[in-house]
Amino acid sequence: MVSFKELHEADFSGITDAAEAWAGVAKALTALDGRVAKDLTSTAQRAGWKGAAADDATKVLQAVDGDFKQASAVATALAAIMKTAAEDFAAARRDLDTAIHDAQSDNLTVTADGQVNWSLPKETRNDPDGAKLAQALAVKAEAIAARLTKAVEKADSADQRASAALQGDIGTSTTAFNPAPYGSGPVADANRAKDLMARAGSLSDPQLKQLQNIMAANAGNKDFSTTLLNGLDHGGKTGPDALLEYSKVYAGLAHGNHNAKGYQDVYGNLSVVLATATRDGGMGKAWEDGLLAAARRPGGSAAGFNDNYPALTALMGAKGTYDKAFLLKVGNDLVDYERTSKTKGEDLWGRNWETLADQTDPMGGLMKALSRTPDASKDFFDPGKSKNLDYLLHDRKWPFQGNEQNLDSGLARDTSRAAFGDALEAATTGRDPHGNQPPVRPHDAAMARIMSEAITSFGGDTAGHAAELPSVMRRPLAHMIADYAPDTYEVLGKKLGGHSETSGLVIDRDQMIRAIRGVAEDPAAFQTIHYAESQELARRLDTFPTDAFWPDSTGRPNPRIEGFVHEAGQVLGVLSGTQSDVITHHHDDAVFKNNWAAKVNYHLIGTPLTPIPVVGDYVQRLVDVGTSEWANGLNTEEDKSTQEQLAKMFSAGENQLDTMIRKRAELAGLTDKQIGESGSVMQDLLFQVSSSYSTGVNGTYRNALGGR
Q1: What is the rounded CA–CA span in Å between residue 238 and residue 242?
Q2: What is the separation, in whole angstroms, between the first and last Cα of the chain?
Q3: Where are the strands (E) in 29-179, listed by range?
């Protein structure tokens, strides 16, 4: 593996010198090609040498002549390999140097091991716009880090490519030159990979390693990928049919007992090959249409179930990053195929439909591929463009449907519906759930449509619908709701008739509450929402000028901050009413209650990782004191009764908002005496907290969730 330090400090002149030296050797050997036969054999024959010895000598000299020819070919290949490697390394180094230069121009620092760091200039740390600057610097640092990683990966790929080619050119014989040297071209490498793939399970360990190296080095190259796919042959099957057969074969070997890791690498890079070859329509419409036709053909057993579509989408989900057009083409075709097929579920996809060890649901692989390409996921789910989301939310039967909660949590995350949750998260947030991209702001209309339909579906029409949220969807949905924290605040805290102002969500308030209640069965997922809303409250609270905490000319509080108190109280009241409903529902399960309280306690697990934008120091201080106070309200002893626990939970959110407002007033310059003065603006605001909070609790616990 090439490291950042190695690429940054390397001197590639030696590789260029070696390439030139081998080119000289090749030239000299080429000059000898034919000289033996011409100058030695013919000379002896002209002298009249005949007989058995003469015939044997002629054969030996002709063989020597062949050796010179093969040596020339090997030397030519070695020169080309090194020349290409030197050029690739130099290109990677240029990318690295350019990224480092750009980092310095943006006041970022790059450490010796390639880490990108940033800090706010001292003069801006107390600036009101400091939070915006901090977020901008964080985004720039992420972008530079990605460029540095890509440059190092480019160099590492060149290293692997050269290594594979050089090992191949050495050959296996100790007495003869390699009769078929690699060369350095992707087409030659693709042909060698094709021949090795055909050996499949009979590959020797060195051959498997060679195939790994070739695939790892070239999978991202378009010429290599298209040549390989066009050249595949499996038992007389060619083109897309051969690809599907190889997908099945190598998927099986990747789970076998011998060299499984090596075969996993080959299988993963075959996925990258397919992604590379189909990018921008690289394989052509006819080939892609043929692939979908092959995927639709039943096979695999006398029962006639289809194992071809699962083979295709499992390969797509393995590793490659596919372009939007190809993903949409496959995704729309798969949904159409399922909808129009007479058979469903196990009868369509095979007996392993609900077997985690060998699940055959093709939707799982598709969803994994979609989750890695948020833009494609958005277009696929957009209710304005298709009925795909409606089908997946309401009509489709999923493996383990209704039974996910009984699966081990690790196994549950491997189900196809869990992958659906990841793809849905990607579509609504614009981020790969497995990556580390910055938040996408603002959410566009398509993202908002998907979010609205998902929440409406999961929230349902009745109080009991909250219990129907699949367990594997809780965390993806929590991340989605947290990503829409301003909209969630507006839906829960304002009377907007079901429309949010920030992203334009169209969601009924009670449906949003029930969706949050479904999430709350998972305490860590619920905490993600709570923390995001605490940040949103703190952000809004920080926007008020200092004089908002003093009486206006009439002696009354600023109407805008009064409105905020009403809204924020409602929001936290909803969250407290939700958690109270959770504890009530599990009132006889002491283990659940203790586990729930422990996992949402900020003191025990610290600040959670949430997909929320960077906030300024003042705002973070408000968040910290607020969540700390909220967690204090949840600390319960094992022998406390449910009613006592509920009493503390019903007050936890009120105490949180009370503490946040007091802290903000302190930051505005008010003393404890001024905050506590009878008839003061602060006392008026704090009394209003209690009223609006109680309204939020009661409306949630008794109305939206049907509590008593």
Answers
A1: 5
A2: 62
A3: 109-110, 116-117
Among 116-125, 258-267, 370-379, 486-495, the least confident range: 116-125
| DSSP output for 263-301 | HHHHHHHHHHHHHHHHGGGTT-HHHHHHHHHHHHS--SS
Name beta bridge partners: 506.
Answer: 499
Rounded (5°) CA angle 162-115-369: 65
Residue 552 — φ and ψ, nearest 5°?
A: -80, -170
248-299 pLDDT, tens digit each:
999 999 988 788 999 999 999 999 999 999 999 999 999 999 999 999 998 7
Q: Where are the alpha helices (DSSP H) in 396-437?
A: 409-412, 416-429
The pLDDT of residue 113 is: 87
Closest CA to 446 of 370, 378, 393: 378
Q: Which residues on adjacent β-strands are paired with residue 117?
A: 109
Whether 645 and 583 have beta carbons less than 8 Å apart is answered as yes
Output b/e per residue, 283-320; b: 16+ Cβ within 10 A: beeebbebbbebbbeeebeeeebbbbbbbbbbbbbbbb
Tokens 């019903």 -> residue: 650
Distance of alpha carbon 203 from its chain centroid, rounded? 33
d(CA 68, CA 81): 20
| Secondary structure (3-state) at 670 | coil
Over residues 143-175, the pLDDT tens digits come to 888 899 988 888 888 887 777 777 765 555 666
Structure tokens at 150: 């890509």
Q: How far is CA 99 from the centre of its chain?
A: 24
Is the pLDDT higher at 545 or at 595? 545
> Tokens at residue 84, please?
């290409």
**Integer angstrom CA distances of residue 536 from 51, 613, 614:** 100, 10, 11
Angle subtended at Cα 634 by Cα 628 and Cα 635, rounded to the nearest 5 degrees: 95
CA distance 542 to 535: 10
